[in-house]
Amino acid sequence: MPVTDQSVCFLAEQQRAREVVEWRTYEEEQQKLQEEQSAIELKQKLHLEEYRKERAGLSHLSWRQRKAALYRANKSKFAVRPSERTQRDELRVPLIIKGTHKHTRTHTHTHRTTVKLINKFRSQ
After folding, report:
1. What are residue 94's phi and psi, to 5 degrees?
2. Taking the domains of the chain in order of start, what are their residue ranges?
3. Which 8-state DSSP code applies to residue 59?
4. For the segment 49-103, what is each residue's pLDDT rounded down to a tens digit?
5. Distance between CA 2 and CA 4 in Å, rounded?
6. Concatenated DSSP letters of 60-104
7. Could you give the 3-state DSSP secondary structure of residue 52?
């Protein structure tokens, strides 16, 4: 069995080891945050320089003329933007299933049509 003094010393060493690990982790996090902050600041600076360079030639115009000039300059960028509707490889049929009362003709007809369409596309 260990002597009491030895176990107290061991526990104190464990506590100190945990503190060292926590401190190193904290220092690593702070270093990473500093690097990220530097990257953000650099990106903001570059963006601001580009923005000012773009606007420098338009400073003599009124805001309406400036807006019109920027619109004309950027119009082609928006024309080549990808479509918001995506193309899919598989065929899809939009179905509308009515939620009427089960004893009405519309419900039965819609249900039969839906089942026929689903079965038809499953077989393909």
Report:
1. -70, 130
2. 1-59, 94-124
3. T
4. 998 988 888 888 898 998 898 888 888 777 665 565 666 667 777 777 766 555 5
5. 6
6. TS-HHHHHHHHHHHHHHHHHTSPPSSPP-SS-----------TTS
7. helix
Q: Among 50, 46, 47, 69, which Cα is nearest to 58's?
A: 69
**Which residues, in sequence order, are CB contacts of 91 under 8 Å at separation 6+?**
121, 124
Say what the pTM is.
0.44
- Structural element, H or E, at residue 47: helix 4-56
C-alpha pair distances (Å), 74 with each of 67, 69, 78: 11, 9, 7
Instruction: Estimate to the nearest angstrom the gap between the alpha carbon of 84 and the chain centroid.
Output: 16
